[in-house]
Amino acid sequence: MIPLRDNIPSRTTPVVGYLMIGVCAVVFLLQLRRPQMPEQYGMIPARIADPSQPVEVVDQRVRRTPQGLEVVRFKRPAAESPVPAWLTMFTCIFLHGGWLHILGNLWFLYVFGDNVEDRFGHLEFLLLYVGCGVAASAAHYLTNPASPIPTIGASGAIAGVMGAYFVLYPRAQVLTLVPVFIILYTVVLPAPLFLGIWFVIQLFQGTMAIHAAQQAGVAWWAHIGGFAVGAAAAWLTGGTRLQRPPVESRISSTNGRLRFR
Description:
With 261 residues, the chain is an alpha+beta fold.
């Protein structure tokens, strides 16, 4: 499911959200020129567990053989990090693994981030975003302390934003694109249902993968940890000065239908 837009207007310009989108985009462009950045600034749990020990990563190359193309996997030393190992729990949230990775993350931030920033304020939203990102890194580290695989992506921080949205806007509606084979459908879903399904998928996948010795691909527990911390932050600050009053959803007065911005 791909969220297209929601029906909650924002009273302020999401300055911090746009800033995070811009920073991630600039860093990604730098990555295209410096492919060693994920190993330098990404979080490698084994490096955090014991910074004195060298870390080996698995790499692969494609070579031509008489039988055709063959993928060869081999181990090599990971690129040295110019920052302390613990700091990569923060720097990793600005890196991404490819175009689909960054476009998907930043689109979710664009759809859900403006309303959360509107409720918290700019500085508080920045603290929420960074805090959820670091918490997501910690959750992944705790479930994979010996992994030599670099962990990168803003998914954990954005999951925190989604968790906060889940608590702050229980009556919101999300216009959602649902691909069914080659046919695209659009449906309107309650935001708690959309975000709840997303969280359950992360929890299921994380539970299935927790016993794996090496987990490549998706850091499921980073998503789970970020979402939980974001939801908890929104719930704990509810009714305090750290939150502005909610905004009513846009509903047409003539026919009661939802109007999406």
